[in-house]
Amino acid sequence: MLKRIKEVLIKEEPDIVLVYGDTNSTLAGALVAVKLHIKVGHVEAGLRSFDRRMPEEINRVLTDHCSDLLFCPAETAVKNLKNEGIAKGVYLTGDVMVDALQESIKIAEKKSRILDALDLKPEEYYLATVHRAENTDDFDRLKSIVDAFCKIRHIVFPCHPRTEKQWRMAGIIGWIRR
């Protein structure tokens, strides 16, 4: 990623690189930009789980510490950065994920027919996702999640590829209706 991002940034010569969230590509983009002396803006800055075993947590902290502009979704994120000695370039901007959700809900209410297809009514089902490695790669934890799901009558579960792979390996994929 570092090599290819560097090639793109050298070619495009941006004034600033915006990176979002806490993925490996977020950190890679920030690192390359900093090394090329390009300003970095981090959207969703300051979020913390305080669990350094999570790869995403390391990505968050390192990205924040090499960013010039930090766009925080909540006051807690601003406080987290202040506690880490980062006060310059910090802005409380709101949560882009909430904004995206609100816009998506409007579109879904107009266009989606998924509830009809699944024979479900609004507010009569739960939506769940499971994709973090900590939950999918530990069999006992994954089994606990599956056991909890089995107690819920109506659950819509868009299955992440990592989760599906682990469920197949554990032999528990059979009850999923596609």
Order of helices and strands: HEHEHEHEHHEHHEH
Shape: globular
Count of β-strands? 6
CATH architecture of the largest domain: 3-Layer(aba) Sandwich
Low-confidence stretches: none
What number of domains?
Answer: 2
Q: Could you say which structural class the secondary elements and strand pairing correspond to?
A: alpha/beta
Please give the count of helices: 9
How much helix is in the residues?
A: 40-55%
CATH fold title of the largest domain: Rossmann fold
Mean pLDDT: 91
Q: Going across the biggest sheet, name each strand in turn.
A: 1-2-3-4
Reading off the top of the CATH hierarchy, the class of the largest domain is best stated as: Alpha Beta
Biggest sheet, in brief? 4 strands, parallel
Please compute the radius of gyration using only Cα atoms: 20 Å
Key terms:
178 residues, alpha/beta, Rossmann fold, four-stranded parallel β-sheet, two-stranded parallel sheet, 9 helices, 6 strands, 12% strand, globular
List the helices and strands and how they pair.
Layout: H1 2-12, E1 16-20, H2 24-35, E2 39-43, H3 55-65, E3 69-72, H4 75-83, E4 90-92, H5 96-111, H6 114-117, E5 126-127, H7 133-136, H8 139-150, E6 155-156, H9 161-170
Helix pairs in contact: 1-2, 2-3
How would you characterize the overall build of this protein?
This protein is α/β, with parallel strands linked by helices. It folds into 2 domains: 2-96, Rossmann fold, CATH 3.40.50; 108-170, Rossmann fold (3-Layer(aba) Sandwich), CATH 3.40.50.2000. It is built from 9 helices and 6 strands, in the order H-E-H-E-H-E-H-E-H-H-E-H-H-E-H. The protein has helices at 2-12, 24-35, 55-65, 75-83, 96-111, 114-117, 133-136, 139-150, 161-170; strands at 16-20, 39-43, 69-72, 90-92, 126-127, 155-156. The strands form 2 sheets. The protein has a 4-stranded parallel sheet, covered by helices on one side. It starts with a helix and ends in an 8-residue tail after the last helix. The mean pLDDT is 91.
